[in-house]
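Protein Entry — a single chain follows
Fields — amino acid sequence, structure tokens
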Amino acid sequence: MKTKNLALVVSRINILNNVVLAISKIAIGFIARSSALLNDGINNAGDVISSVIAMIGISAGAKDSDKNHQYGHERMENVAAILLSGIVMVVGLGLFVDGVKSIIQKSYLNNPEPAFLAVVAAIASIIIKEIMFLYTRKAAKKTGSSALLASSWDSQSDVLATTGGLIGIIGARSGYPIADSIAAIIIALFIFRVGAEIFRDGTNKMVDHACDEETVNQIREVILEQKGVKGVDVLRTRTFGSRAYVDVEISADGSQSLVDAHAIAERVHSAIETSFPEVKHCMVHVNPYKEKS
């Protein structure tokens, strides 16, 4: 399956799962008298929007180059990731404010004891969301999709949020209603941190951040393995959405013909793009080799 198709399939599965979870939690939240589960269901309804944004970003980023966008549309995925990070951070901030307000106003004392059904629903949600996180993250690594990676961490933040809700539900059933508010505050901080990490990753790729050092070293090794290459004078990389560009200057025998020098450049170009599928384009310049003193 092509990477674009895989990313879109995963996004559709996430949308379906979030719709089912949102409806189930809201309904059970009312029946089981659990405000924590009800709020978690509303959070999942927001996840539907997040998954739709991710799918739109993936679809837009996969478009071919055109006259007005000659380098492609990959950065649309980063735009989607940044939007998703905002949603995650808002959720974290909202949970934090609600938890603090509940403790200050002591409104948790007025909450009815939730039914055991709320505990079952929360545990089931944690298991489903963790599976969604692992599945989506695996697909994100396989496709190199930053929007899909952001969506996976959004699912992980939901696991944390629901865990906090579960602790609160159990605490309320055990005679400690304040546990719900304390758990919400702690989990909110984790969720906000996840959103900040997604935002940092998205912005790094928006501003032509270099590839990681391991990848750069691997590219350098591939270049030096090519016949006719005597050295690497310059090696620059930059990320472009889920793809990367490479600019390299190599040293070769200056006495050979232009045809031979061009053949060396072609070998380097082909080797890089073949060995590193994430490289969208590679530019190779050949310099005459100079003996170092």
